[in-house]
Design a protein that fits this description.
By secondary structure, the protein is mainly alpha-helical. Helices cover 66% and strands 4% of the residues. β1 and β2 form a beta hairpin. The N terminus and C terminus are likely disordered.
């Protein structure tokens, strides 16, 4: 039995001149617009070329097929997300919980703003989920979160730090995706992100201060926190 030929997902070549760079940028911008409007199933190189105002032949100089365009868009998204996560969590000038809150608000807002494109890219994910770039993106974001947990929870065990990193990363990604599938107002996004950040911060606070107690007094929640907080 012959093996099924793998779809080429890498670009044919990288632009070297300013005009070539502008052409690739125009193609990728057009691809985002087509993807947001048509979705992955109706995404074609012809539609992208038409939206970009270039010939299909010019497009094929850099991208052999639609899978290569989608893969490039996904790689750019991975890079931007990883850089965002690393820059926010790695800013040691700010308290750890403040950084975590900033990350949650920024991530949820970004998920909602880019929901249409993200959903379409998710539909095309089988094309490249096992690509080396995908594995490196996951590893990079995991390293950033692990480094943050070592700083935020210096007295916690390595297993606790690892569990906290995985739990927050998985929850943020999954819940953010589900929340953004429905159009949201800025007020809804702010309220949801705030509640999610509260939950994460309370979780880390409990790990950092195992002696603290949570109590409910009527409709208000009061939290007793020890004076030895390391966050």
């Amino acid at each position: 039995m012959s093996r099924k030929k793998r779809t080429q997902i890498s670009s044919r070549k990288e632009p070297r001149q300013a005009r070539s760079t502008e052409l690739v940028t125009a193609i990728l911008d057009a691809a985002i617009q087509v993807l947001a409007k048509e979705g992955a199933q109706r995404f074609t190189t012809a539609r992208v070329a038409e939206r970009a105002g270039v010939s299909v032949g010019s497009l094929y100089q850099y991208f052999p097929n639609k899978a290569a365009i989608l893969f490039r868009l996904q790689c750019d998204e991975w890079r931007q997300t990883t850089e965002l996560l690393s820059s926010i969590l790695g800013d040691s000038r700010k308290p750890a919980l403040q950084r975590l809150r900033t990350l949650v608000h920024t991530f949820i807002r970004s998920e909602c703003d880019e929901a249409a494109v993200r959903v379409a890219l998710d539909d095309a994910a089988p094309l490249y989920r096992n690509a080396p770039e995908a594995k490196e993106a996951r590893a990079s974001s995991a390293r950033a979160m692990d480094n943050f947990m070592r700083e935020a929870l210096p007295n916690a065990s390595k297993s606790q730090q690892s569990l906290a990193a995985k739990l927050i990363k998985t929850t943020l990604s999954t819940v953010g995706k589900q929340f953004s599938e429905t159009p949201r107002t800025p007020a809804e996004i702010k309220a949801f992100a705030g509640a999610l950040a509260d939950m994460f911060c309370a979780y880390l606070d409990g790990l950092a201060n195992p002696g603290c107690q949570l109590r409910i007094a009527g409709p208000k929640r009061a939290r007793q926190v020890s004076n030895t907080s390391s966050i």
